[in-house]
């Protein structure tokens, strides 16, 4: 099995299982990261290290044959050498030309027989996100005279950002951003009638690939002005299979104006989807829509992770000109359902990004019960709001924010009193005629 990347972003890093090469137990580590020059992202750096599983130290004098592929296209093949066993390959995309290889250290290093293991690879390659596969073969290790032959297959994923403009019947033009951490996104569309975001991605559903994949991660950035999508719960599907709630998480912290919805599929979810569909098509078809029910309470950590705040509100749909009751508890972050009582707090509801609708300073209950705050909403505002908790227990770093929406009121058609009376009269007359018809039919039957 693969060891997952700490951030769970996909196959940006992996350590292959130990295998014997001669008498040595060997693992191969692969990492990728942005290649920076003067803090500017100019490409991708790939790091290969051949490691002794027993000592956890790199083998010296390693010769590595590397062939790179994307989809069905071969990108390059080359033999690299490293005295330290640590390879740093800086891939610098260019618009055209052939692929070139240059070892860092220059001509002098080559003359004295040194191999730095650091290379610049330039050419029309790695210029887009997606899944890149490598066929690797270890040719020497421990000594350049110690010739071996050990093949490996590996893959890394380069994140790709996609921006789409959608049109909603109620909220107009909205910009939705998709960051794919596994492979390229295709067939994006928004169904305004069903309020559903749809897209697809290539994926190999073979058992061999499922054994290798640790996680598949998509990130959907939704403007907080997109009211119908600022909800407490979503319905997500892959290939028609409903995702568990734990496969979706909401991030309202990273941006004041953007909500990020993470779709994270681990091995168990991937195996479940395959077993439910037995789909032979080599892709994932995603759909995401707001759930009709709410997922209360919403629980978030404070910025300093000192507390958790558990929040719900009633009615679930916040409307202009109405009052809403917010109920919350402050919880210990490490003990399940352990409330922190008699705690000072600042509670604020902000319209948009700056205008304060309501502010209250108080103290949470002393018995662990819910603390409630009733907020009257102005009749002239609809749109995103931020529900903020600050200065918990007097700590300026103990704060937490929740996003919600003040929905547009649904107008109900009004009928003048005369029209209502007229309608009732017509209905009564129709009922009378029906009864007369029934009596006549009975009389002559």
Describe this structure in words.
With 445 residues, the protein is mainly β. The chain has four domains: 13-157, Sandwich (Immunoglobulin-like), CATH 2.60.40; 160-290, no CATH class; 298-406, Macroglobulin (MG2) domain (Immunoglobulin-like); 416-445. It contains four helices and 29 strands. The strands form six sheets. Strands 1, 2, 3, 4, 7, 8 and 9 form a seven-stranded mixed beta sheet that branches. A five-stranded antiparallel beta sheet has the order 12-13-16-20-19. It has a five-stranded antiparallel beta sheet with strand order 14-15-21-17-18. Strand 22 and strand 23 (308-314) form a beta hairpin. It is elongated. The protein starts with 12 loop residues before the first strand and ends with a helix.
CATH architectural designation of the largest domain: Sandwich
> In angstroms, what separates the terminal alpha carbons?
84 Å
Strand proportion, as a percent range, falls in over 45%
Assign the CATH topology of the largest domain: Immunoglobulin-like
Spans with pLDDT under 50 lasting ≥5 residues?
Answer: 1-10, 412-424, 429-436, 438-445
Structural class based on helices, strands and sheet pairing: mainly beta
Mean pLDDT: 85
What is the tally of beta strands?
A: 29
Shape, principal axes of CA atoms:
elongated
Helical region count?
A: 4
Largest sheet: 7 strands, mixed
CATH hierarchy, class of the largest domain: Mainly Beta
Q: Report helical residue fraction.
A: 10-25%
Radius of gyration: 31 Å
Write down the domain tally. 4
């Amino acid at each position: 099995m693969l060891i997952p990347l700490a951030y769970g972003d996909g196959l940006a890093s992996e350590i292959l299982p130990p295998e014997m090469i001669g008498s040595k137990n060997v693992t191969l580590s692969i990492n990728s990261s942005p290649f920076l020059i003067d803090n500017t992202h100019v490409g991708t750096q790939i790091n290969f290290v051949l490691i002794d599983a027993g000592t956890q130290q790199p083998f010296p004098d390693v010769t590595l044959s590397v062939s790179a592929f994307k989809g069905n296209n071969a990108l390059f093949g080359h033999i690299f050498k490293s005295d330290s066993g640590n390879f740093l390959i800086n891939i610098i995309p260019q618009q055209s030309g052939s692929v070139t290889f240059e070892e860092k250290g220059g001509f002098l290093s080559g003359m004295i027989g040194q191999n730095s293991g650091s290379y610049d690879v330039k050419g029309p390659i790695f210029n887009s996100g997606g899944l890149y596969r490598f066929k690797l073969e270890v040719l020497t290790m421990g000594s350049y005279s110690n010739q071996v032959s050990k093949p490996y297959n590996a893959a890394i994923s380069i994140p790709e950002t996609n921006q789409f403009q959608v049109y909603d019947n109620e909220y107009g033009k909205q910009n939705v951003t998709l960051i794919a951490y596994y492979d390229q996104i295709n067939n994006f569309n928004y169904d305004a009638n069903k309020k559903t975001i749809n897209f697809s991605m290539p994926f190999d559903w073979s058992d061999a690939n499922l054994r290798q994949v640790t996680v598949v991660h998509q990130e959907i950035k939704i403007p907080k002005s997109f009211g119908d999508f600022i909800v407490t719960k979503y319905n997500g599907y892959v290939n028609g299979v409903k995702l568990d709630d734990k496969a979706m998480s909401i991030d309202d912290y990273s941006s004041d104006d953007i909500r990020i919805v993470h779709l994270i599929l681990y091995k168990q979810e991937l195996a479940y989807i395959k077993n439910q569909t037995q789909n032979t098509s080599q892709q994932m078809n995603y759909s995401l829509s707001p759930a009709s029910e709410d997922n209360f309470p919403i629980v978030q950590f404070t910025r300093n992770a000192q507390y958790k705040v558990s929040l719900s509100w009633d009615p679930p749909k916040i409307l202009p000109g109405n009052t809403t009751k917010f109920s919350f508890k402050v919880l210990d972050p490490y003990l399940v359902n352990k409330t922190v009582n008699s705690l000072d707090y600042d509670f604020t509801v902000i319209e948009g990004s700056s205008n304060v609708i309501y502010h209250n300073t108080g103290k949470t209950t002393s018995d662990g019960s819910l603390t409630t705050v009733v907020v009257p909403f102005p009749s002239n505002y609809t749109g995103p709001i931020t529900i903020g908790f600050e200065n918990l227990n007097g700590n300026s770093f103990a704060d937490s924010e929740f996003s919600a929406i003040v929905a547009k009121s649904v107008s109900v058609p009004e009928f003048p009193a005369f029209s209502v009376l007229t309608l009732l009269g017509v209905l009564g007359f129709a009922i009378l005629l029906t009864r007369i018809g029934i009596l006549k039919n009975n009389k002559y039957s």
